Each structure stands twice: as structure tokens, then as C-alpha cells.
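ESCALATION

Customer reports they have been waiting on this structure for their group meeting. Please prioritize. Original submission:
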Amino acid sequence: MDKFCKMANSGYKITIGLWITSFLLIILNSCETDPPEPGIDYSGQRDTILDIDGNIYKTVGIGTQIWLAENLKVTRFTDGTKIPCITENKDWKRGSLYTPGYCWYENDSINKKTVYGALYNYFAVEKGSLCPTGWHVPSKNEWITLAKYLGGTDVAGGKLKESSGNFWKSPNNCFVNNNDFDALPGGYRKSLLGDYYDIGNTGYWWTSTSSSTSDSHVYMFSMTYDNTNLQSNQRYKNEGLSVRCIKD
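Update from on-call: job pushed to the front of the queue and completed.
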């Protein structure tokens, strides 16, 4: 009888021990944080690429993404098809054009092309062959990923803006631009009258994400001289905005 009791007590102790161990494992597992998102950190990586016109662009790695460090200025799609250069205000007015087009700010290809790049309507973007091969126009979510890596949309603009003091209107509210994205205030071409607006004040960049509420609008991001925000909004497809490409 004593032997039986000893065996029973031993089995009871083992059962209790296993139960406690299982309980502790459950508690420990519930305290674990989510694993980091997969991906390589390309921060600090610098390179150059060519577009089909032979333009050379600097590229920059920021977090898990690689971006152009300049605004796009190509005048042909990757298949060699020319993109029409639209100069007349009337052709940029809302409802006037539903095919690809681009322009240089104030139609000045000499002084505006090298620095600010071209302004494209969204019909050029949605062709899917505007960026160099292996690159694409970023989605809204890819811009958000960039902002999150830099600390959120409240500060990301201040970390992306070119900070030499030569291009942005004063005061250019920004932080030390140590990532070499060098965002510039290239302005845009409005669809109300087809005129140019905001150079020196604001930079506007298309995304590849169409609006969920309007067939005539697309998401874009902007940065303004007097704050550090990276702002998301929507613009008419007819308007002319800058483009930054991101690596596939």
C-alpha cells in the first residue's frame, strides 16, 4: 500500500510539473513580439541607372527600398514610343486630354529639365512603362512604407527634402538630409486652367494607386517648404506631376 501511494504521489507530482511547464510556455509565448518584416536593409546603398533616353539618375537605398534620387525626365516609354510633349494650357485643362503627355515647367526644357525633371499626366503613368526596366512608379503603400521607415508622415518630408537652401522657398523646414533622396519643389501643372503652379513651394509626386472613390482621381504625395510632413492627397489624372521611380 505504501509503495502504491508513493507511485501515485510520484505520478501526481509529474502531472503537476508538466501542467506548470505548459502553463509557463503559454505565458512566455504570449509575451513574444511579432517577428520583424522580412527584407534586406539597403540603407546607404548608392548607384546610378540609365533611362531609355540616356539620362543618368542617382539611386538611393532607404530601408528595404531603392529609389531614384532624382525626378524622372524621360520622354519615351521603355518600348521606345515617344511621349507627347504637351505645351498648350488648353490641353492640360480638366477633361481635355485622356492620353499620355508630359511637359517641362513653364515649357523650359533648358533650365527646368536637369533640376526638376518632367511633369507627367497620369495617363503616362498608368501605361506601366514610364520608369526604366526593373523599376516602377510606387504605389501609395510603398510611399507609406518609406514614411514609416523615416519615423512617420509627420517628419518624413523633412528628412527627404533637398536641404542646400538653393531650391526650396525659405524657411525650408527640414532635417539633415542624410539619405540623399533630395526631394525638390518642382510644382505642378493644374487642370483648372492648365497653368503652372507652386515651383519652389511644393513638390508633388504621382503614385500608381487610383482613387477608390473617383475614377478621375489618383493618389499622390507632396512636401511643402514650411513643414516637415509627407502629405497624401488626390489629384485629377489630367494634371502634371513629378515622378520618382522605385526598384521592383
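Sent to customer with the following note: The two ends are 75 Å apart (CA to CA).
Escalation resolved.
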